[in-house]
Amino acid sequence: MPRVYIKTFGCQMNEYDSGKMRALLGKDGFETTEELSDADVVLVNTCSIREKPEAKLHSFIGRVLPMKRQRRVIVGIAGCMAQVDGERLYKKYPKVDLVFGPDAVSRIGEMVATAQTRRVLDTEFLGEEGYPFPSDVDPESAHRVGAFVTIQKGCDNRCTFCIVPATRGDEVSRPIAEVLAEVSALVAQGVKEITLIGQNVNSYGLKIPNHPTFADLLRAVSAVPGVEMIRFTTSHPRDLGDDVIACYRDLPNLASHLHLPVQSGSDRVLRRMKRFYTRAHYLDVIRKLREARPDFVATTDIISGFPGESEADFDETMSLLEAVRFHASFSFNYSPRPGTAALRLLDDAVPDSVAQARLERFQARQREIAIEEHARLVGTVQRVLVEGPSAHDDGVVCGRTSTFKTVNFPGEAALTGSWVNVRITRGFANTLRGEAE
Ligand code: 5AD
Ligand code: SF4
Fold first, then answer.
1. Residue 403 in 3-state DSSP?
2. 20 to 30 A from 88, CA-CA: which of 37, 167, 390, 408?
3. Cα of 162 from ligand 1 centre, angstroms
4. Tell me: the pLDDT tens digits for 117-132?
């Protein structure tokens, strides 16, 4: 059997797309391998959200291309970088056989077949009508407790810092019947936790009259027998309506956690980012979520050093952190991306050292808050869905609470997929430790 090796950088979308490529190539007789040296086809699924991930592609390709001197191997660059920069990459790496964007994932089989005889560059965006969301399920999800299900592709927002609309095109919602069929297929394989993914899930279906909304979709997924936990990402604070908040009151299998990227605590910066909500609105959404679900936990994304951000603006981000007490966050320095509107604001660029100092200030305080919040959990009993043996400790298993806390505790691998009541004995910045009750 020919073997495919897929290296994935970036977000859940890319992980999911890689899974679809494994599934589609599996139908063509390919087997997945974890060993680069065994592979007949090597695909790298790239990310372009910030500059750093791009450097990773270059070092990976540098490792793979020399393999071609020893034997026949087809090498492909997929994903967001390929979409925005495909032609340049195609020219820069004449030994790379395939360069294709996210919209070409459903054609991976044909492309790999074609690449036997000639090079392929495919960065066409498909129309919204009949957009092909492959229904084949990632073979690797059969061994997993949780799986992603895409509900939407692309994004119609134009946040001024963000390259995603250029890499993934306009928003297209996946028909609800297809989403539910994939959820059922995963549950039939033993998956317990479903994470619905899209660039802006809260706007699901809104473009089409009488289409089910995201809240309708949540209720439908919640009712699929065997779905024990539902998560979703990514949410936009402007589009998260009261109908979705009501789901936190009504649906017991909806997780008590939401990742709600705020980006900045300053209204002036939010305006320049074209986020179309205010700090007050964001705080109001968090308050309502807590009312609907008392143990609700929020996590977020923050950008430091967006053009024009003053010290006072960043103080607002710090005070938002205090007001919400996020349990975790992803925070990065602003990274100028090609073709984005924020490039026009670069006259007002924040010096790197200033952005970095702000970032470190935020991260240090975030860490303290996480440790404080986790210390409060010591002595409580938490329900944990076990994901499998710990990667680091023998005889220890690792799972998650509904609030998205990673909990490690002594236990057998056979507990994988079951719920265990765990008494928390220690809290760290990113994880908890406990003992089964
Ligand atoms: N620079 C820095 N961070 C960015 N993000 C998106 N674009 C940029 C950029 N140009 C961050 C945002 C987003 C997360 C996925 O990545 O915080 O929520
Ligand atoms: Fe990018 Fe904004 Fe769309 Fe998120 S909502 S993908 S940040 S443009």
1. coil
2. 37
3. 6
4. 999 999 999 988 889 9
User: Does the CB atom of residue 306 touch ligand 1 within 6 A?
Assistant: no
Please indicate whether residue 337, judged by its CB atom, sits closer than 6 Å to ligand 1: yes
User: In this predicted model, what pLDDT tens digit does every residue of 348-390 receive, in sequence order?
Assistant: 999 999 999 999 999 999 999 999 999 999 999 999 999 999 9
Q: Determine whether the shortest distance from the Cβ of 342 to ligand 2 is under 6 A.
A: no
**Number of the ligand closest to the Cα of 160:** 2
236 lines ligand 1 (CB under 6 A): no
Matching CATH number, 381-436, of 2.30.30, 2.40.50, 1.10.760, 2.30.33: 2.40.50
Rg of the chain, C-alpha, whole Å: 22
Which three-class secondary structure state does DSSP give residue 123?
Answer: coil
3-122 has CATH 2.30.42.60 classification? no
- pTM as predicted: 0.95
CB distance 54 to ligand 1 below 6 Å: no
What are the structure tokens assigned to 212, written together? 């089910």
pLDDT for the residue numbered 141: 82
